Fold each of these.
Amino acid sequence: MIYLAFYRGEGRFFSDTLVQRITRSEFSHCELFVSALPPLPGQTHRCVSAVGKHGGVCVRDITFRPGAYDFVAVPWAPTDTFERAERHLGKGYDYWGLLMTQLVNMRRHTADRWFCSKLCAKAMGLADPHTYAPGDLKRVVEEHNRTYMAAQELAETRQAAQRPRVTHGAPFFPGSGIFAGGLRSAREGAANALSHMTAGIGDGGVRANAPQRVAKRTQGLPTTRARPALAQPSNVVPFPGRIAR
């Protein structure tokens, strides 16, 4: 997982306080790193960023002092975000871009030089990376995270709606209106029909049910009642001793 560490600063005027005042944010710097687990204060991670006192883009091990950093996960960032930032390793610090984008808001910068939030935004694929101060980048990333999580929840809800539900032992597909693979229901229906057919079975076979007579009404005549047929040799159907299931 890609993470950003936003640094609050230690009160140094040019590197911390001035940046915070110009950008109107509590953060003066940011670092990008990769971690399999959520980072904790006191841990050391290998980070990439652009640092003025180190001459520009550099990779270094940083121990996150408690209270000095805020961590933000970036689940939507490309998996090679760290490598994208490393490609600019050794390039100079963009003092001109930092002043022209944050101090006077002219959106001017030097293409092959970097400051911290510009490098991180570029590595994550954000447009116009030179326009982001550390505090701006944190707000934008958190907004993107909320949108990303909402989209994930919506996708999971739609996928769950398409999965079959198990109803009385048979899977049911929402929207189809039918049971899929309802073997249990089919077997129960066949068993009931078979039980009805074999009722009164004897050595000679199965007694057939005669069709009922259709009731007719005429003037002054009552309705004819249906009478069951008697077992006659003509309506006895031979039935095998063993019934196939």
Amino acid sequence: MGQMIAIVGRPNVGKSTLFNRLTQTRTAIVDPTAGTTRDRQYGRVDWNGKEFSIVDTGGWVVNSEDVFESEINKQVELAIEQADEILFVVDAMNGVTDLDDHVAEILRKSRKPVLLVANKVDSNDWLYNVAEFYKLGLGDPFPVSAVNGSGTGDLLDAVVEKLPEVEPDQQLEEIPKFAIVGRPNAGKSSIVNAFIGEDRHIVTDIAGTTRDSIYTRYNKFGFDFYLVDTAGIRKKTKVNEDIEYYSVIRSIRAIESSDVCILMIDATRGIEAQDVNIFSLIQKNKKGLVVCVNKWDLVEDKSVAAIRHFEEAIRARFAPFTDFPIIFGSALTKQRIFKVLETAVDVYHNRRRMVPTSQLNKVMLEVIGAYPPPSNKGKFVKIKYVTMLKDARIPTFIFFCNLPQWVKEPYRRYLENQIRSHWDFKGTPINIYMRDK
């Protein structure tokens, strides 16, 4: 189960820059308009063989007309509730402010592992300022410079060291794990109810070891899989704007612990930015995908043309990954609900499909012969041999050639499209690697 680290801190201490540095994304997410950076506030990190996600909470909480204090209270509360470990960022140039004191007090009471990060130590002159942060009572501050990267390696070492040990989830059987994700009110709970129906006795809940994922074993009508549910849905009385945030944080948890994600889209609302955000989380985690357009019973125009138009719109928004199934249904009338499950099972099998090496070479070498990689400065890339990696998380193809670094993105996409047109990998991402023979 992925572990989650949250970055908290008052505005302008460099949370986003630190996030970029730690996740090594170079996207300039430092954007003055609040709320535009949502999707880019989540990253996967692999440090010395340990994988975890980092979430920059500052970018999620909508900066409404709120005073900074209640804003930051929300961030910190979320981090304490959802994260396994917290990075509390302060500004070494400014020293301790009242707001820092306030946050430190909440964090001390939380009993969560906290690392205090003194940012903006861009040169040694600022190092002596760091001692001031000892008075926050959160242990040794880590002096870092998010801008030039100094100190971040030591910080990541400490992050990994402090991560609580996760005992592996109680042995889940090797059957598919499906997560149902989507915007609030897209119909996630109604589709779960449609699956599970009133026969609650078919359900055995296995709680994940972490407080976040619950696996519901579902077997009837010839299906056998786990539905991943994320625990701890809060009472709806909380301020409305948090719901959106929660839904994303909880989606992250569910997506990370699943094999295939069923993304619910509300037919009456069309595709919204939030749908694209959740889609990109599924992509970043390399999970299988089935799109379910829910509430189709409420749409006036159900013609073939309307369906085609909607499908094209979805694929256009999610491009370049377009090879995934889209199903129009209704959780309320249960129309095509089982089709969703059947399709998710298919996608699960596609993720594990192995193409025999002989067959792969026969087809692909012919395809490559018909349209070889473009030559570069008079040198020709020759692809000699193709194989599939065994036991990879998603279908992974390795092409052996003489000049791997010269095979560019458009040609890789051509290879991927050819693979997809010859074998059924619908719904699953594919990795393509070029290797020196």
